[in-house]
Design a protein that fits this description.
heterotetramer, A: 303 residues, 8 helices, 16 strands, 29% helix, 20% strand, globular, B: 276 residues, alpha/beta, binds flavin-adenine dinucleotide, binds flavin mononucleotide, binds FE2/S2 (inorganic) cluster
């Protein structure tokens, strides 16, 4: 019998636990190397009220088993997303999750309101790793109070389930996790990228125009698994694990540690078939271990 | 498409320059001039990202006598081992497997008409001009196609014997005069362009940024159409990471365009050359 | 002319900026693959008042371009260090820096007092990434106030220069850096390892007996460089850069970003000749770039 | 010492088992029985850590007829491609370079006297017993040395032809009876030990933990000296990471000892076998 890969993220049903991470799969229509409809879901590039050009190049640099990026949240804006992108992907069996970001609480609310009621969207994911322009650049995700405020405001503006994407750049990720759970978040996703930097030793300039960028890829996987496990001990809402996932085994590590689903980011760049391969790897694993459903693994870590 | 193929050869063409090839059956996607492939250089996750390589030559035994037997065909790349990624690549050997995605990117636009086609190359930029030269001589008289190759020194002048059978004109310049004329390839272009009417000439260039910037400015001065092949860091090669943005002027407005998807070939007037 | 590699960390003169990081080079006498006297310095394994057995195995696990460890601060204790280890290394031209840790402020003070006046020690390095037993396991290094308290107490107990080793596991490393500078630290070193985790998907147990461990190696380098750069903007005491350094180029990145010296950790394990190779690489670089002294590079990043 | 050497061969000895060798001149450090090397499996930083491999055979043309010419000598390892590290290693080919550190660790202690030497091997554990067998037959009658090799099935019984020229006794058991006697190698040991006086027998074992634990308990029951070769994760291989600690009982007290420095060979009574 074919093992059952379907999972539930609160009220969101996913045909399988493998999603494309925000900013690493465009708006779901760019990749033609495999059938994207096989995926559990696609998280869109972060959407803002207005279109954004993003940061000047160079925007990426390779590091040991990772990369830094400062794309700068380039996006078409929520309006163009609804008009031009959503019609092309809204009918998919893969759940479409709209990633939202802003520099003020109002930005988040504006995007949520524009998306409200649109067909083909399964949930919103709030990227709270953005500097809050009203608070001198302090990230929403670094402050439990600010993070909760964003979540409350968005929850009032939308009927979609709200997933809050946590920043790893905090002393204790559990505090923010608890705060956003209490504020009404329906699920959590973690982790976003970790700020990093690289230097050109010949020109003595940063290798990124923006000086620092977000670290992603296999390098951060152990940090992400640790945070998923820590957070899973203190919240009761579902968790989506993100960070360096490139193989079925990586995905299994996150699921066992407490995630109900996973997102694949950077691996899509260097190994475009990563997600379909993870799917078949998960099936094989369940089959060989005689486990009927992927749900039998979630949060089963024995310590 | 994406696949892993056994390397046919990976040989030094000149000190630090290599040619690498793998089988590329006829029924695989057609490759246009200027297109590139993304190849993995390591099996583990360091180096993590694929490297972009412009297609040099593609074809069967007619192009590659070393292919054993008719019906076989291959794609070949010409690269310089400069950093870690290409350094790893240079260590691969015949029979090792190479994982690739391609062909990617846009192609040179072939003009409807034109009596003079100047292909201006520096270093490995040469690689993106071979397929172009072949496409051009299919539709234009072979004598209208002129390849201008420049380099610092003799050892930077690569692979001319590959181009000679095409019958096109070839000019070589080196800065130190160890091969061809002493001087810069851009000077050769400049004097050639002086003798031709603007609307009959086309320039195509690939190589170091300062060279291409100069080629662009010479062409602009003479109002001659010029296409350039850009390079830069790439995360994916197929439009999903947004890491490869380059600054472009469209109708005077500064915009970001994806090197991997809207490029690597751009009209030279659109390109923002920075402080170069 | 041979380029000048010597640097100054406050009052400590180093013949060159390359030191072995604590816990990755034993007590300086274990390695015989090269002449350790070529090094700028050796930071000892962390010393506690009493000997410690460390944590149960498995203690290490490999990750993407990194490794996790839970050695658990196994050490011979300060007494045995002074009696048995120091006599064998105290005469070296490589500066000996005694790394100190504890679960209470008194632990740090006890070790500092025992080392006070001992010949052959150039400085103390305080590892403040340890859980404070009096504060329910909160790390000293996570709390600017606690960190400052440790530093003040140790400064009263010793005449050796005090280097404070910062934990990366905080929202804003600059706050702790400023606090320990104000408390009298003579220099800072950063970063220590980042907590991480790995899972055996077959047994569904953590791959480390201690569940989580500290991530080190090339994976963390971009994070470390970013933190060195951030801290260098807000303190005026010297900084020693640590994290994933494996090549001369890596070391140069840290120096240019603002470090006056570097420590090499994990690379000593997988490439035992890393440190001598970095030294010759630095010389070659200075030579080829016609830079007379490594000091001409420190903190010269142009942004 | 540490060096990078060209691989002489890296060939499949049995499905998934490989023999890899590189030149090891006579004047290099002498290698004792049970010692190991740390080898790098990738050039980049993933996989990061070296892998430990016990020395299988070492010598000149007498041991390796494939060595071309007298004066040449080599060291050979026998390994199983189980995970990522050994999987990468298995892809290396003759002529590729391999970076190694070694020889490392302690050796089997050769007893002063003894009429019966039982070498009990499972899987790649066999590799640490070849040098031991040669050392033993130098000081004891060849008939006193008995190699007992066990495995699940025929394909796990490796390299016996390498041992046959030594002239020692060899017993083979497989659990499925596809080679040698059907059964477990520990049963063969048990019955052999029954017939000999305790103080004249010595047991040396290398292989999977459950097998070694059983060998240890059989030996302990008969009060026969038993040395075991342990395995486990290692960060460095030479005593600086403290990552390879194993639990040891010294005079009844539980202690940590470094697998890489105090081991890999331990007296079996000292070893804490855990729940196994
Ligand atoms: C469309 C395109 C076609 C190319 N065609 C060729 C070719 O035919 N022959 C050839 O020799 N080289 C070509 N390159 C450059 C090649 O992709 C290498 O990535 C580049 O030379 C960097 O070498 P490395 O990986 O050894 O350096 P590393 O130092 O390992 O590179 C580090 C990172 O910087 C990026 N990077 C640095 N410089 C460049 C650059 N100039 N271009 C692209 N990425 C860079 C790399 O992709 C990598 O992510 C092409 C690049 C592009 C974008
Ligand atoms: C002293 C010693 C001698 C050895 N001799 C041999 C030999 O002669 N032939 C052989 O086939 N194998 C031998 N091994 C095991 C070998 O070192 C491999 O590391 C081990 O089989 C893991 O394989 P991998 O790297 O492919 O697995 P991976 O999954 O890539 O390993 C992941 C990590 O776990 C560690 N690890 C996991 N299991 C083991 C284990 N059983 N032993 C050591 N490390 C482990 C690895 O070192 C690595 O860091 C020896 C190990 C030791 C300690
Ligand atoms: C190039 C790039 C762009 C990204 N853009 C976004 C974004 O727009 N919104 C967001 O929430 N996360 C964004 N991320 C973060 C990823 O979604 C993911 O959280 C992170 O990369 C860690 O996963 P990975 O290691 O699998 O890449 C981006 C990551 C990368 C590499
Ligand atoms: C096995 C191991 C043991 C360590 N022990 C100590 C220690 O005792 N005290 C300390 O301050 N840091 C200790 N560290 C941290 C290192 O000194 C260093 O800060 C960290 O590993 C990052 O550098 P790297 O990436 O070069 O290893 C240890 C690191 C490792 C890998
Ligand atoms: S390289 Fe990824 S979008 Fe162009
Ligand atoms: S493997 Fe590092 S101390 Fe033993």
């Amino acid at each position: 019998m074919k093992p059952d890969l379907s999972v539930q993220i609160g009220s969101i049903h996913l045909q399988n636990p493998v999603l494309a991470a925000s900013g690493t799969f465009g708006y779901g229509e760019e990749v033609d190397l495999f059938d994207v409809n096989l995926l559990g879901g696609i998280v869109t590039k972060g959407l803002s009220p207005k279109p954004r050009m993003g940061n000047p190049p160079p925007r990426i640099v390779e590091t040991g088993a990772g990369m830094l990026n400062t794309i700068g949240l380039e996006n078409v804006g929520v309006e163009a997303f609804v008009r031009e992108k959503l019609p092309r992907i809204g009918h998919l069996k893969a759940a479409i999750i709209a990633n939202v970001f802003g520099g003020t609480v109002e930005d988040y609310v504006t995007v949520a309101q524009r998306l409200e009621g649109e067909k083909g969207i399964a949930a919103l994911e709030l990227n709270i790793s953005c500097p809050n322009v009203h608070q001198g650049g302090m990230e929403f995700g670094n402050d439990p109070g600010l993070a909760a405020e964003v979540v409350r405001a968005v929850k009032r503006a939308t009927r979609f389930p709200v997933i809050v994407k946590l920043s790893p750049n905090v002393t204790d990720v559990r505090l923010v996790a608890k705060a956003v759970e209490d504020a009404g978040a329906d699920a959590l996703s973690l982790i976003n990228t970790i700020p990093g930097m690289a230097v050109d030793v010949y020109t003595r300039r940063p290798l990124l125009k923006n000086i620092t960028g977000g670290l992603s890829g296999p390098a951060i996987k152990p940090i992400a698994i640790r945070m998923v496990w820590q957070v899973s001990k203190v919240v009761s809402i579902p968790i989506i694990g993100i960070g360096g996932i490139a193989t079925a085994r990586d995905a299994l590590e996150f699921l066992i540690a407490g995630a109900s689903a996973v997102q694949v980011g950077t691996a899509n760049f260097y190994e475009p078939l990563t997600m379909p391969r993870i799917l078949s790897g998960l099936e094989e694993f369940l089959h060989s271990q005689e486990i009927p459903s992927i749900r039998n693994l979630i949060g089963t870590l024995q310590v | 498409m994406q696949q892993s193929s056994k390397i046919l050869w990976n040989t030094e063409a000149s000190p630090n320059y290599y040619k690498i090839a793998f089988p590329y059956p006829e029924n695989y996607p057609a490759i246009g001039s200027g297109q590139f492939f993304m190849v993995r250089v390591a099996e583990g996750s360091d180096p993590l990202l694929r490297r972009a390589l412009a297609v040099y030559r593609v074809g069967g035994v007619d192009v590659f006598p070393e292919l054993k037997g008719p019906g076989l065909s291959a794609v070949e790349f010409l690269y310089r081992a400069v950093g870690r990624g290409t350094g790893f690549l240079a260590k691969k050997r015949e029979g090792d497997s190479l994982d690739w995605v391609g062909p990617l990117g846009n192609s040179y636009t072939l003009p409807k008409e034109g009596a003079h086609h100047y292909l201006v190359a520096g270093g490995t930029g040469l690689s993106s001009l071979y397929v172009l030269a072949k496409e051009l001589i299919k539709i234009f008289p072979v004598s209208s196609v002129h390849l201008m190759v420049g380099g610092r020194s003799q050892k930077d002048i690569l692979c001319l014997p590959d181009f000679e059978p095409l019958g096109i004109q070839i000019s070589v310049t080196t800065e130190d005069g160890t091969k061809g004329a002493r001087g810069r390839v851009t000077d050769v272009l400049e004097s050639a362009l002086r003798t031709v009417p603007s609307d009959s000439a086309h320039v195509y260039t690939a190589g170091p940024i300062p060279m291409m910037a100069k080629v662009a400015s010479i062409s602009k001065e003479r109002k001659i159409a010029c296409q350039v092949s850009l390079e830069g860091p790439m995360g994916c090669g197929f439009g999903i990471c947004l890491g490869c943005s380059v600054e472009i002027f469209e109708k005077g407005e500064r915009k970001y365009r994806l090197l991997c998807k809207h490029g690597p070939i751009f009209n030279s007037e659109e390109v923002y050359w920075g402080e170069a």
